[in-house]
Design a protein that fits this description.
The chain is α/β, with parallel strands linked by helices. The chain has 8 helices and 8 strands. It has an 8-stranded mixed sheet with strand order 1-2-4-3-5-6-7-8, sandwiched between helices.
Length: 282
């Protein structure tokens, strides 16, 4: 009788071990499936595109794990020019499933080495808006021609000067589904008018010294006047260039009212992510 009970005990232990192993294998299979479903393989490359008068040097990124054609998003750089920060944002958009083109609004990949030079470059673009629009539209056409892009789904994002460019392009009637901007200027060469078709997400710092209360008030009033589809978010205690991790060092080096804000940077990117998910119904 004792031997019989002993055999039952061994059988029970073996059965439990078998079930545990099966459960562990099942959990491993589920994890493997999740990893496979969320696989990200970002491919980025430098490209050139041009207008009749200028050759631009950009950077395009996509997720090779995505199937079919994805929406394309234009990324417009800060006033420093087409740099690593803009490329990183293109890569981050690619991770989300978009094809992102980081553009060159100055031509020849030109970058400013000092704020005075950055002001000169950015002012030249804004004062010669027809030329700027030619460059922007050349970037859009380049993005639409990419084999991974759905040419009927194009949007834009921009930072600082790039935000002003993206908003001005949307106001001028550029065929964009949506525009999301970060620490953007609001005094634009083309202000909101009936030509605006894109949905807008504008995220600025409440302590941004580059924007006056009057500019914000006037910009919102013009959007309201045309019943624009927009959201304006001002982060309390946040300064200009809050998404750029180099903002603090640049502020110290050149005595500029800039500051990186990790919390605002994270929240603003999440809001942008949700914004584009709604636009493209992912």
């Amino acid at each position: 009788m004792k031997n019989y009970k002993w055999l039952l005990l061994v059988f029970a232990i073996a059965l439990t071990a078998c079930k545990s192993e099966k459960k562990n294998n099942t959990e491993k299979d589920e994890i493997d499936v999740i990893i496979e479903e969320n696989e990200v393989k970002v491919i980025g490359e430098e490209i050139s595109y041009e207008t009749d008068s200028t050759i631009m040097k950009g950077y395009i990124a996509h997720n090779e794990a995505m199937e079919g054609k994805s929406p394309g998003i234009i990324v417009v750089h800060e006033w420093w020019g087409h740099d690593e920060f803009a490329r990183e944002k293109a890569d981050e958009l690619a991770e989300l499933g978009y094809v992102a083109l980081s553009v060159d609004m100055y031509g020849q990949g030109k970058q400013a080495k000092h704020p005075d030079e950055a002001m000169e470059f950015s002012s030249n673009v804004m004062k010669n808006f027809d030329t700027a629009k030619q460059r922007f539209m050349a970037a859009i056409e380049t993005l639409k021609e990419n084999e991974n892009v759905n040419p009927n789904k194009i949007s834009a994002i921009g930072f600082c000067f790039g935000g002003s460019v993206a908003l001005a392009m949307a106001n001028s009637g550029s065929d964009l589904d949506a525009v999301a901007v970060f620490h953007s200027g609001l005094e634009l060469p083309v202000m909101p008018n009936e030509d605006l078709k894109a949905k807008l997400l504008i995220q600025n710092g409440a302590e941004d010294m580059m924007i006056t209360d009057e500019q914000e008030k006037e910009f919102k009033a013009q959007l309201e006047a045309i019943n624009a589809d927009y959201e304006y978010i001002a982060y309390e205690g946040v300064k200009h260039s809050f998404t750029n991790k180099d903002a603090d060092s640049l502020a110290k080096k050149y005595d500029l009212p800039l500051a990186y804000d990790k919390e605002a940077a994270t929240k603003s990117w999440e809001r942008m992510t949700n914004f584009f998910e709604e636009v493209y119904s992912y």
